[in-house]
Amino acid sequence: MIVLLLLSSCDVEKQIAQEYVNYNKNNTSVLILRPDYILKKDKIKDSELIDKDFSLNDVSDSVFIKDYFDNLFNELRTFGFKVYTDINIDSFLNADTSAYVFNISQILLEESVTTKIEDAEYDENLYEKTFMLNTVTVNSWFEATKTNKKENQMQVLYSEHFINDYIKGRFVRNILFGDVEYKYTRNNITLDDVYRLSAFAGKKNADYIFDYLLNEHIYKKIQKPKKYYRYNRVTGKIEQAYLERFIFM
Length: 249
Fold this sequence. Notes:
The chain is of the alpha/beta class. It has one domain (30-208). It has helices spanning 2-22, 61-79, 89-93, 191-221; strands at 28-33, 39-42, 82-84, 98-122, 125-146, 154-164, 166-173, 180-187, 229-232, 237-240, 247-248. The two termini are 35 Å apart.
């Protein structure tokens, strides 16, 4: 009986989420406030230094921010939102819709090292190959506020998106001598990869904004929903978000 009630409540939550997707999204205005620059942090220790094809200092703030927000704006408009920035804030304040402000208070571009271990077993012997991979992470902090709420409470939201150097390979055994070695190719992160990560992060954060408002809609109808949901625009389905979401700070 408890299982049936749980399934029933989840079905109701999905129905409310679908209601938002079908009707409410076109009645929502969002104001996006951008930072003037990005922060950069190199967390690589001297003992972890590896060959790299770029430096954080090579990253142009203006190019990074443009790629990030062009994709964020385009994705939000694809969802049906009315999107405003600081240059048309008066129009936003006069919008006759539900209105939310998302102030991107900080974007931190972080570089670190990740360890990757490949292993395989031959004749009960374990062989390992360890790689030190350069990792670049885009950390974003959003301050979300619903403007026509009496209390105007602000919610801080966080997301991170990252890329690594790419290793493709496998263990190979020499059939004549029995030696085992790991044969591989390595593609290091390039500056263009960092800009592509910026564009990806902008698009994904637009998805997270949509899902945040979708779950706000569910919360209005059900005070304690069982799950946090996401809208999969590719399949058109409502799904449990799991890790594909903002982290509430």
